[in-house]
Amino acid sequence: xxxxxxxxxxxxxxxxxxxxxxxxxxxxxxxxxxxxxxxxxxxxxxxxxxxxxxxxxxxxxxxxxxxxxxxxxxxxxxxxxxxxxxxxxxxxxxxxxxxxxxxxxxxxxxxxxxxxxxxxxxxxxxxxxxxxxxxxxxxxxxxxxxxxxxxxxxxxxxxxxxxxxxxxxxxxxxxxxxxxxxxxxxxxxxxxxxx
Length: 195
Hints:
- By secondary structure, the protein is mostly beta strands.
- It has one domain.
- It has 4 helices and 14 strands.
- Strands 4, 5, 8, 9, 11, 12 and 13 form a 7-stranded mixed sheet that branches. A 3-stranded antiparallel sheet has the order 7-10-14, with no helix packed on it.
- The two termini are 21 Å apart.
């Protein structure tokens, strides 16, 4: 089972609200009713999800904390181990080419994949079986988030505006009302290769 796969038993109940905040661009932002400091990272509120790996695997869903951990620590989406080769390059297996930032830098929401797990990932995932692209990069840095965007409504309520939107980390107003589900990273010195 891929390391980043979500499981049925990892779902957590939560309630979103809009709260006053001195840190927010316009003085208010999206929050949880019972917010804690670790709910925020890179200016965004993060989707709450357990990491217990209990219940039935949800093949098409990604576990938010494990995806973020893979991106920040350059861990393999399949086995959870390092994806950095002896020469210092990081391996990626993607179903399609990465996006491009406004500055021309490639970016992705797909966690890296160690060289040893590339054949396993291709065999397990139908999307990767026929169209997989293999890359290496010299470095990866947080660039943005994939998030559901909300807007404030009467009574400090939050109303869903858009689902699964890419939001750069410098889009402060949008981040104030983002519920992040995946971390985006920009990829330095990205090179197409064969595994």
